[in-house]
Amino acid sequence: MTNIPILSLLIFFPFIGSLVILLINRKDKFYDNKVKEIGVWTSIINFLLSLIVFYFFDKTDSQFQFIEKFKIINDLDVYYYLGIDGISLSFILLTTLLIPVCIITSWNKIKEHISYFVVSFLMIECFLIGLFSSLDLFMFYIFFEGSLIPLFLIIGIWGGKNRIYASYKFFLFTLFGSLLMLLGILTLYFYSGTSNITLLMKTNIPFTLQIWLFLSFFISFAIKIPMWPFHTWLPDAHVEAPTAGSVILAGILLKLGGYGFLRLSLPLFPEASEFFTPLIFILSLIAIIYISLVALAQTNIKKLIAYSSVAHMGFVTLGIFSRNLEGLQGSVFQMISHGLISAALFLSAGSLIDRMQTKNINDFGGIWKQMPIFSVFFMVYCLGAISFPGTTGFISEFLVLLGVFKINFLISFIAAFGIILSVTYILWLYNRVCFGDNIYKGISDLNINDTLIFFIFLFLIIMLGIYPNFLISIYELSTNKLIIN
């Protein structure tokens, strides 16, 4: 494996698939099917490539692996520098899993500009894997910013009736944060003379400069997660996005902020991270409690799940800035867990909306009579969302609370109350959707393809909930290294 640029292959294989799609003759009567097939097989092959990386990844080594490095700008000392650790690999596996799911579930739902739709998802995959593999700040920024463009198009072209407003709101929020991060990157580069992340981890940065640099990165990452009060773009984006757009947004794009905190903020600005920890704890608790109360008031199913995402990501920032082993491991587990559960919930919401042409929860009811298979899957996803034992949600939030408990009992107690609130609105959602007197005539249950995809999420949510060490062992040494450093 040392002679194969496997990370570059993972990054650019979706790009090659996109070029092939764009070169297909549009007059071909099987054009749409060919586009979909190429998109699906490209993403599946990339998933298999990521499994090869996982197989050869050495869990006993905390250093970056599969290194690829060469200079791309001589005068500026900027490198094409790739490498992954256990944290990076976890997110790469989640990305390569979700992209084929997004394309397959949209097979018969997208009727216009199909080639651009599929290409958008392949390019998201390209940018995300590039981001998770980058060990150069400028490369990190390019991939971080690049992931904004395809999702902007997905919401703006294939979204709902207010898609233009939602897409521009999403674009402007994230662009503003990214520009602040760019200023921080330039400042850091001119101060240290390098954009090499591994070298910057060893650089002693003055406390005052750390403060300003931390803030420039923090705003960008806080918008991406999103933390309160930077979250207002998310519900609009989810409501207007097509189902696949919501899946990839909740499943992986919201994790970029948390990954940024782990990869850059903690190791590069440790003193500033400690200084701002009380503020971040306060913002996280507001997100967990206040946003949960907001979720309780929602009648739009996609908006309720969107607010639920904001609340659950509050546990991520609590865990990260607890800066102890349990908190850090719990935060990474929470991001992967939430990626699976939220993606499954949005797939479920999409299935209901497609069948009933409404997003209003009050219009649902009695679904279990017409869709018993769907109701069982939906129940497991909801149990995961309320941190029920035996699911990934329980493991992740338990670890986070344990890590925070070691620092401050009161903070962990308030955060635990947020779990109770999540039980309230999630169980209300399930009860309103699956039970009741409303009966829809002629509503079909999940077909074989949908059942298979739903089962994949159910299997992972339960398997990792019962055997969490399968995932934790991948990134355990990487989180240990953050504490040591």
- The stretches of 5 or more residues where confidence is low (pLDDT under 50) are none
- Morphology call: globular
Please tell me how large the radius of gyration is.
21 Å
Number of strands: 2
Offer a quick outline of the entry.
By secondary structure, the protein is mostly helical.
What key attributes describe this structure?
single chain; 485 residues; mainly alpha; two-stranded antiparallel ribbon
Tell me about this structure.
- It is a single chain.
- This protein has 21 helices and two strands.
- The protein starts with 5 loop residues before the first helix and ends with a helix.
- A hairpin with a 4-residue loop joins strand 1 and strand 2 (78-84).
- With 485 residues, the chain is mostly helical.
- It has helices at residues 6-23, 31-56, 86-105, 114-133, 137-146, 148-158, 163-192, 197-200, 207-224, 233-240, 243-253, 255-268, 270-296, 301-322, 325-356, 367-370, 372-385, 392-405, 409-434, 448-466, 469-484, and strands at residues 65-73, 78-84.
- The protein has a two-stranded antiparallel ribbon.
